[in-house]
Amino acid sequence: TTEAPLLTATGLTAGYGQATVLHDVDLELHAGRVLAVLGANGAGKSTLAKSLAGMIPIRSGTISLEGAPIDRLGSFQRVRRGLSLVPEGRRLFADLTVRENLELGLGPRSAADSLERVRTLFPKLVELSDRAAGALSGGEQQMVAIGRALASEPKVIVFDELSLGLAPVVVDRLLEAVGEIAGWGTAVVLIEQNVHRALALADEALVLRQGRVVFRGDPGEFTDEALRLAYLGAD
Ligand code: ATP
C-alpha cells in the first residue's frame, strides 16, 4: 500500500531499572492490517506492548501515530489519540458490572454508538451487562477487556496475550473478532503465544528474541524451521 502507516516505531529501546529488555525495535503498521508479534517467554513482547501503549517510558527511539510523535505522551493521552491496549491479564474491575467496565473505556471522542459496535461484535455482553465482571468466565472477561479498548474507537489496538489460559474454542472466537476489528480498518498489533493461529490471521509478523527483532515478513515466509530457530535461539 502507498498510504502512510498509522503506527510507526523506530529504534525502540526500553527496559526496567538497570535491565534493557527491548533493543532497537522498528515496526510499521497500516490501517486494517494485523501484525503478529511472536517470541518465546521473556523475549520482550509485553515490554513492546507496554512501550507502545505508554505504560512504561522508552529509553530511546520514536513512536508515531498518524505521523505525529506520541512517545512522550502518557497512556491516557495515547488512548485519546487513538491507540488502545488490551492488557495481558485483562485488568478488569471485578466488582464493577460489565456495563461499567465498558463505559470506563469511553473517551471524549467516542460516538454515542461506539458501544453499539462492541455489542454487535460480542452480543453476549448485552445479556451480561449487569453482571459483575469478576463473576464471568475467562473468555467473557476477555470480551469485556476488548470491548473496553474498542469503546474509545481506537485506530490502533494492541492485544497482549489474548488467548492466555482460555479454551481453544474460545480462542478461536476471540481471534475471529480480532479479524473483524481489523476489517473495520483498525491497525492491530497481536501479541500471541499461539503461533500458528496468529500467523493464520496476520498480514505480517515479527519474531522477538532477547528483545531484538530476528525475523520479520510475510506470515507465509515463516517456515517451521525459521520459527524453531527464532524460538530456540540457535544460530
Ligand atoms: P511472557 O510471554 O513471559 O510475558 P514476554 O515476551 O512478554 O514474555 P516480557 O514480559 O516483555 O516478555 O519480559 C521481558 C524481560 O523483561 C524478562 O526478562 C522479564 O523478566 C523482564 N521484565 C518484565 N517485566 C518486568 C518488570 N516489571 N520489572 C523488571 N523486569 C521485568
Automatic annotation (TrEMBL):
Residues 7-235 form the ABC transporter domain. Belongs to the ABC transporter superfamily. This is ATP-binding cassette domain-containing protein. It comes from Herbiconiux oxytropis. The chain holds residues 275 to 509 of 510 of the full protein.
